[in-house]
Automatic annotation (TrEMBL), chains A, B:
Pro residues compositional bias, start-end: 1-12
Full protein name: TetR/AcrR family transcriptional regulator
Domain of life: Bacteria
Domain HTH tetR-type: 22-82
InterPro entries, A to Z: Homeodomain-like_sf, HTH-type_TetR-like_transc_reg, HTH_TetR, Tet_transcr_reg_TetR-rel_C_sf, TetR_C
Keywords (A to Z) from UniProt: DNA-binding, Transcription, Transcription regulation
Segments of skewed composition (Basic and acidic residues): 13-23
Pfam families: TetR_C_11, TetR_N
DNA-binding interval(s): 45-64
Segments for region (Disordered): 1-23
Organism from which the protein derives: Streptomyces albiaxialis
Matches recorded under PROSITE patterns: HTH_TETR_2
Record keyword Acetylation present: no
Amino acid sequence: MPSQPEPSPPESRQPDPQRRSERSRRAILDATLDLCAEHGYGPVTVEAIAARAGVSKKTIYRWWPSKGAVVLEALHEAADPVSGFPDTGDLRADLLTQMEALLRGLLGSPRFGRALIGLIADTHHNVELAHGLQTVLFQPRIDDGRARLAKAREAGQISPDADLDLAMELLYGPVYYRLLLHQGDLHGGTELESLVDHALRALAP
Amino acid sequence: MPSQPEPSPPESRQPDPQRRSERSRRAILDATLDLCAEHGYGPVTVEAIAARAGVSKKTIYRWWPSKGAVVLEALHEAADPVSGFPDTGDLRADLLTQMEALLRGLLGSPRFGRALIGLIADTHHNVELAHGLQTVLFQPRIDDGRARLAKAREAGQISPDADLDLAMELLYGPVYYRLLLHQGDLHGGTELESLVDHALRALAP
């Protein structure tokens, strides 16, 4: 953006398009998750998001191709501070920390959970959105989990020939299975501990 | 279709309404899975099902409240001959038999797989359909799996205090995780054997 003006000092009356855009972008992402929490993903429209965020529909379509794409970006930003993998050296504790945060802070929160479930449903009718879900939301976090498990493997805490993809599926498969197939949400606590302990037993050296 | 003539058996001129209904019902269920295989679940309409099955829309709506309800019944019938749990006394072999059949005969088949994925997506916008998916399609089969695992537990093949719900989630969670989150289908063979072996290790006495 070579011709974009620099943030101007208070003396100036020049508007700051960069800053205004960021404010609109945040308002749009916030409005999107709020509306999904209130109504579920299905009934939310780009019109409703625009009205709630105080922007025009045109502004939204200038930045995103569809409602699903807005939801994807909103979820990606919301997940970032919560979904990281700690590394205290204690694999079991670190998995419990990450998965409790995922369950309580994200999947169990109406703002995040309802939007994510609706987005996942939508990806099964929309190849581009499926690609976005996979590459933007899931793959970077799966890679983080694999990296944490790889360190544990090097430290001899899991089997030296542990299959890290299978390890991630044993840990997270049951979480999404329950969420997506209406089998009752996993709430963390002793139920989560039991899942992690079983997965670690399956992967033990 | 009150005025449609039935092919009558040579001796009798009496129509057999029961038989005609069953023939229409089968035609509707077949047309539904065929259309889902060709177009995916999303674009299939009750109109298109009626046209393909040679019945009126009214006939379909007399028996089912929605497209999703037709798909649910079609999947339930298609799953029945394939999804049972054998009991040869060898738990590992029986799990592999059932899961290979599930993967190859159902989830991996376009006729069944595309309809199921679309239906699951639809259940996240439709509470009644979610209830139907759970009670008609999943719960009876989960109960069968639990019963097979309970026998294995009695026989001392898995831990006497094994949690059978968790056991089912360790086995089937990864399958649906990959299917529903676009993580690449599980194709059976050595990959499936590895999953079953890890789950059994987690559940070992």
